[in-house]
Amino acid sequence: MGENNPGLIEAAWGKAQAFRRRHQTQEAQDLLNQVIETDPQFAPALNSLDYIKYFQADYKGAINLVLKVIAQGKDQVDLSNYVRALAMYAGAKGMLAHYGGVLSKAIDGLAVKTNLDKAQKLQPDSPAVLFGLGSYYLLAPSIAGGDRVKAANYLKQAVKVDPLFADVYVRLGQLAKLQGNQKEYEAYLEQALEIDPQNELALDVKSRRCKFICP
What we know:
Layout: H1 6-21, H2 25-38, H3 43-55, H4 59-70, H5 79-99, H6 102-122, H7 127-139, H8 148-161, H9 166-178, H10 182-195, H11 200-207
């Protein structure tokens, strides 16, 4: 790939991203591993592979990847990738807390809001951060800070910033369902699948497996 040729590394990452967005997961994963082997600190590839690991339910693997981005520091990584790493770290920690025992819920659960707050201070208009905060307020129990009004506010902000962010529509749909609006729920889910017919979160909710949490 060319260890001393950043252009080739970026091109390979771009190709891997195209595979990932088409849900050609194995092709994306193989190429991302090659990129990371060539440049172990290439933040975009670490974040992209984190996304794949997350939807494979390998939350510890996802955390290990983004910690490599976070450990480099915000002065060494471009802001959007650093912030995205914090948001994805929070998301993976949330899943560990959800499926873990009492200790995990205390330790991993605390890391969710803490890291989302750090990310928000750095880049308040980041769609990943707005989605993360909206999901947190939607999915957290009221005793842990759950708040449907705040959830709606953050998710609607995320849609304004990135109207093609399919995951946001899924969470908005779940919120609508909680509020007793079945038609709005179905419309949001349909919108998510129009944007991305193979969207993992939308298909998970539609199938009622709820692997990625249904409130």
